[in-house]
Design a protein that fits this description.
single chain, alpha+beta, 5-stranded mixed β-sheet, 4 helices, 5 strands
Length: 91
């Protein structure tokens, strides 16, 4: 990672209004920790690239949940697109 710059996290409105409120309480802390400790530090190293219709996006696994995001490397921004259970996230 160039320098020691951390990434800024941004969320789609649908993530804030729909995804986060429906997360199980027990997992909210783990997901928040995953975002803060992994995606702000090294979103490329921690995330796995996605294929097909989600090409250009990456995902971070937290238990049975997936955080799907895009990276703007020039601006050091990670945009979180969706946070859902693995059964639903790729639909």
């Amino acid at each position: 990672m160039p320098g020691n710059k951390s990434y800024h996290i941004e969320y789609f409105t649908s993530v804030i209004e729909e995804d986060i409120p429906t997360l199980p309480k027990t997992l909210k802390a783990s997901i928040k920790k995953g975002i803060e400790e992994c995606l702000t530090v090294d979103p490329i190293g921690f995330g796995k690239p996605l294929r097909y219709s989600l090409k250009g996006h990456r995902r971070l696994r937290v238990g049975d949940y997936r955080i799907v995001y895009r990276i703007d490397a020039k601006k050091f921004i990670v945009v979180i697109i969706v946070i859902k259970h693995r059964k639903e996230v790729y639909e």
